[in-house]
Amino acid sequence: MNPRTTYSAIACTLGLLTASGALLAKPADTGRSLAIEGCSGCHQVIPQQKRPPPVSEGEEGAWTEAPTFRDIANKCLSAADLKAKIVSPHYPMREQLLMPIDVDDLSIYIRSLATRQDCPIR
To answer: For residue range 20-50, what is the model confidence (pLDDT) as tens digits?
Structure first.
């Protein structure tokens, strides 16, 4: 076998394995990545993260702290209720433009952070 052909075959195989690994990532892991990328500016999305500063509510002198994802998880919302809050947020949270699968993954990640024993999914 030609060395170039061998290297090409190895590179192609590694590329396919990498791509299939990304497709097979656990929803909570994907949700965590989405949260870090898109939500961490306002919310503390992982326990190790320093809590972001309060956000303006638009009124002069009105500021609010966005809840941590753990606090949200400990409200023990159903998956449907949590998804509804993500896609139809209240002010000052801006509208989220996410694919349905991303909303699913994000809600799975948030619910995985629950520490309350009485939450349906922990």
So the answer is: 344 557 999 999 999 999 999 999 999 999 9
d(C-alpha 89, C-alpha 100), whole Å: 15
Number of domains the chain contains: 1
Rounded CA-CA distance 64/82 in Å is: 20
**C-beta separation of 78 from 120 below 8 A:** yes
Closest CA to 22 of 33, 12, 11: 33
Question: pTM of whole model > 0.85?
Answer: no
Q: What is the CATH number of the domain that holds 70?
A: 1.10.760.10
Domain containing residue 77: 26-112
The DSSP output letter for 118 is: T
